[in-house]
Amino acid sequence: MNSGKNLLSNTATNIFREKANILFFKKLYKEAASNYLNAILIDRNNAENYYGLGLCYKNMEKYSKAIKYLDIATNLKEDFYEAFFELGICHLNEGISCGAIKNFVRAIQINPDNPDAILQLGIAHEMCEEYELALMIYQKLIENSKGFLKAYEHKSTLLMKLNRYKEAVKILGHLIKLNPDYYNAYAGIGVCFEKLGKLSDAQRYYRKFLQLKPFCEKAEFIKSRLDKIKFNKPQKRYLSVCK
Fold it and tell me: DSSP readout, 9-37?
């Protein structure tokens, strides 16, 4: 008799979860959340249902609720990488850096080969103003996952924040070697050279950026930088020759 009830319960739970999944992918998060809740009311021990509900609240930017349900998912399933990762993201969005670090570390322990959690761990330490530790994490990620371009971008951005422009240029240069079409790298190098007073080099990289992305949102900013350099750049003066 109990087996029959369990079968009906599992069937009902699966129906609600499948409907919730469809609604979630349609970005109908409120409706999806309602169906995940129905699934939870039938089966309170299914980590996937809590995970789905947590993601709904995350996408509705209700991070405290998302944290509540994602936390339940991790308690029900201790090796749930995705739940720990999303829990870390929600803590970051709430400005709770210690919670973010804890969950990203756990996610890395479960899946040490996934670079996304390692990158987010660096971001969490950066939020704590532990800049050298964040730089170390980004560098380790660059060494172990050479094609993971986000690590280069985050390290260079932090170096620029710390006014370490020469180091940032080197990182961005490596990024361009890996992907010559990574247009933000050209803008970053341009800013670095401008800060270093190398205005001709700054102009060259700004122009390269505009060649790749002439109509993007950042293009107006780059054009303004070029105009400023042109206005402030000292003009060469030639002495007239007396005959």
Answer: HHHHHHHHHHHHHHHHHTT-HHHHHHHHH
Instruction: Assess whether pLDDT exceeds 50 at residue 243.
Output: no
Name the burial class of residue 14, with classes exposed (0-12), middle (13-18) and buried (19+) by CB atoms within 10 angstroms of its CB: middle
Scored b (16 or more CB within 10 A) or e, 96-135 reads bbebbbbbbebbbebeeeebbbbbbbbbbbbbeebeeebb
CA atoms within 13 A on the CB side of 144: 13
Nearest-5° angle of CA 47, CA 51, CA 57?
A: 150
CB 175 within 8 A of CB 153: yes
pLDDT of 62 over the 50 cut: yes
Residue 121 to residue 143: CA distance in whole angstroms: 16
Judged against a pLDDT cut of 60, whether residue 237 lies above it is answered with: no
Assigned CATH for 10-63 = 1.25.40.10
Q: What is the pLDDT of residue 13?
A: 85
Element (H, E) at 1: none
Residue range 148-230, CATH number: 1.25.40.10
Model confidence pLDDT, tens digit, residues 124-150: 999 999 999 999 999 999 999 989 999
**What are the residue boundaries of the structural domains of the chain, listed by start?**
10-63, 148-230
- Give how far Cα 125 sits from Cα of 87, 111, 142, Å: 16, 20, 17
Residue 188's nearest CA partner among 172, 207, 210 is 172
Which residue bears the tokens 């890996």?
178
